[in-house]
Amino acid sequence: MKESLGIALITLLVAGLAAVQAQQTQGPPLKIEQVKENLYVISESGGNVAVRVTPEGVILVDDKFERNFNEIMQRVKSVTGLPVKYVINTHQHGDHTGGNVQFIKTADILAHKNARANMVRTKQMDTPPRITFGDETAVYLGGAEVQAHHFGRGHTDGDAVIYFPDLRVVHMGDLFTANFPYIDYENGGSIAEWIKTIDAALELDFDTAIPGHGPIMKKADLEMHRNKIEIVRQRVRDLVMKGVPKDEFVAQLKLDDLGWTLNPNAVAYRSLPRLYDELSKS
Asked: Percent of the chain having pLDDT more than 70?
């Protein structure tokens, strides 16, 4: 009997540890909040997902990780009983496109041609989007229009700015986040071009901006983000001009007045040597 009790306790302990590990992997529950009428954002665990509800179905912008698919669908069903008809990817990173593997079974997925090419080249997923666009495209569904614009390089070379003209809202993907920008040079990113790309996005008529990660913001916040990137570009360029070596410039790069920090464990930190190289060439 003691042996049976011991086995039962071990089983419970293993199950408990597995549950904790699964919870840590999954992260906190996804949250959904309304941005404007018929437009919602699903946050937590990966990139922000925009949910545009129309009388004929739903248009999503990004879809987090594959593991989030069921929970995304639960959040969508909490605001509408209609199916997801389209998914638009802002770029190729897996925390924004992982759900493509599931959504492609029932929905059309769109991405910029460079984003798809990056997915294929890096073998990021088995089922990359079947539909791509160049400078711009639009989805029309149930009287709603959702535009996708490629204004140039920035976070990657396949970034799309998603525009909801009737609601005056943009989804910027990782061209706009609350933290120090990650420049994915392996996939065509550029800090110099990033500024031009945001300048083009700011020409759109909008008042609300959904970042790739973080809380819903305003147009003024995007303008501030653009200016911070310009300040970083200029400061790194000044260090290059002064002859500060590449292996020393990070220690001299001032960011605290911008509200940004450099975490050596963060993926953005790994882009800094290439940032130095880009500005050295220019």
From this structure: 91
DSSP 38: T
**H or E stretch covering 9:** helix 2-26
In degrees and rounded to multiples of 5, residue 160 shows phi and psi of -120, 135
Q: What is the pLDDT of residues 253-265, one digit of tens each?
A: 999 999 998 888 8
In this structure, how many other beta carbons lie within 10 angstroms of the beta carbon of residue 282? 11
Question: What is the spatial distance between Cα 151 and Cα 140, in angstroms, rounded to a whole number?
Answer: 21
Helix (H) or strand (E) holding 236: helix 219-241
Split at pLDDT 50, 70, 90, the class of 19 is very low
pTM of the model: 0.89
Buried b (16+ CB within 10 A) or exposed e, 51-79: bbbbeebbbbbbbbbbbbbebbbebbeeb
- Residue 17 pLDDT exceeds 90: no
Binning pLDDT at 50, 70 and 90, where does residue 126 land? confident
Say what the pLDDT of residue 277 is: 96
| Backbone torsion region of residue 191, taken as left when φ is above 0, otherwise alpha when ψ lies between -120 and 50, otherwise beta | alpha
3-state SS of the chain: helix, strand, coil percent to 5?
Answer: 40, 20, 35
What token pair was written down for 11?
Answer: 């089983």
Q: What's 213's DSSP letter?
A: B
Q: How many CB atoms lie within 10 A of CB 238?
A: 14
> Which tokens hold the place of 251?
């220690």
Q: How far apart are CA 38 and CA 118, in angstroms?
A: 32
The C-alpha atoms of residue 282 and residue 280 are separated, in whole angstroms, by: 6
